[in-house]
Queue: 4 jobs
Job 1
Amino acid sequence: PRSTLFPYTTLFRSSYINFMDKWTHFVMYGGTCSVIWWEYLRQHITLDKRKLFLWAWLAPVLMGGLIELVQVYCTTNRSGEWLDLLADATGCTIGAVIGCGMEMVRRIKK
C-alpha cells in the first residue's frame, strides 16, 4: 500500500505517464520557485541576486534533498531517490528562469 495524500487510482499509473513522480517533483518545485520570485518582485524595487539565489533556488533544493534523506533514514516504507532531487533542482532552475523573465517584463514596463 502507498501512503499518499490522494488515493492511488489507475489514472496515475506510471504506464499512462512516464516518470509521473519526477514530473510531479519538477512541477511542484518549479511552481514554488516561481511563486517565491513573484512575491519577491512584488515586494522589492531592486533585485538582490544573492538573496534570490539563496531563498528561491538553494533553500528549496536543500529542502528537497533533506526530504529524500528523511525518507531513507527515518521511514520504513519510503526510499530516497537521486532522480527526485534532480527533478526538484531542475524545477527550481526553470522557476528561476521564469522569475528572470518576470523581472525582464517588469523592467520593460517601467
Job 2
Amino acid sequence: AHLGHEWLAECIYTDEGKRENVMAPSPQRIKIKSEEHVLTPEDIIKVARTESPRKINAYFVEIEGRRFPPKQLLRAATKTNQPFDTGVAVRALQALGFKVISLADSPRTE
C-alpha cells in the first residue's frame, strides 16, 4: 500500500490527467486571525474521510469523489473557533496543493 503524496494526488485528481506538483511537498503555515496552524495535505484528507460534506455555496474541493466547502475542511483541520472568510480557506487549500473549483465553473453531474 503506497501512501505517499503521489498516491494521494492520484486519488484526488484522477480526472486531471497530470499528477506532478499537485500536492504541496511540505507542511504549510496557515494564519487565521492571531492563530497559526501547520497543516499537510494528509491533514485535510483525514478530515474529509471523517466529515459529511455540507452545502456548497460558491466553491468546493473534491476529495475521494466527495465535494466539500473549503471552509468546512479548514475549520475541521485547524479546530479553530475564529471567524474567517472563504478566501482564507481557498488560499490555504490551494497552498496545500488542492484544486478549488468554483460552483459557477463546474459542470453539473446529476
Job 3
Amino acid sequence: VVVVSREGSKIADGFVASTRSSTSHDFVLIQCEDESPLYVTPEHKIYVPCKKEWMRASEITTTCNILQPNNKSKKVIDVHTVSDQTARKVHALTVTTTCYFANNILISND
C-alpha cells in the first residue's frame, strides 16, 4: 500500500498508523485496464479525476477514470457488486495522510 496526501498534484509520503477489522457481505469489484481487480466495500471513497471528486465505490461506473500513483488516470473496464451469503473479514487502514493507493487506485476511508 502506498500512502499519500493529495493536494492538487502534490503527493507526499505517509504511513499506516493502525488497522481495524470488521465483516461485510457486499463488495464492489473495480477493474482498470492492465491492473489487478480491487475489491472494496461499497462505501469506500475512490478519487475520480475527471469529476475532481471522491465517489463511493458503489457509484463508480465504466465511464470513470481512476487516478494512478504516477498521477495519470486509467479507464475502469469493469465494475460490479459482489454479494456473499457468508460475511468476509475486511480491513480498514488508518493512515497519517488523507488517502492511499491500493492496487494502484487512490482510496480514502473518510
Job 4
Amino acid sequence: DAYLGCARLGIFYDSRSDYKNSITAFNKSCNAGDPEACYMMGRTYAKQGQFKKAHKMHVYNCNKKGAKKSCLSAGKALLKEKNPDQKAVKYFFKKACEAGLEEACSRLSKL
C-alpha cells in the first residue's frame, strides 16, 4: 500500500542521512498506523541528537501502538538520565518483555 511505500522511502532517505525527508516519510506511514514507521521516526530523531523528540515518539508508539522496540527504546533512554525514574523504566521494559523482546526481559531482570 501507499503507506508501506512511505516507510520504504523513509528508510531510503535515512540511509542517505536526509533526515528531514526521512521524518516526513516515516510520519505519513506512522500516522496511517504503521508502528514500525513510528519506531524508525524515533530512531531518526535520536540520530539527529533530538533525544526528547525521539523519547516522546517511542513513548507514544509503545503506549498507543504496543510497539515493543519503542518500549525498549523508551526504557533505555530513561536509564541514561541522571536520576532515572525506575518505575517508568520497569514499566517500559515489562511491556517490551511481555511482547516477546528478550533484551527487555534481560534488562528487566537486572533492575
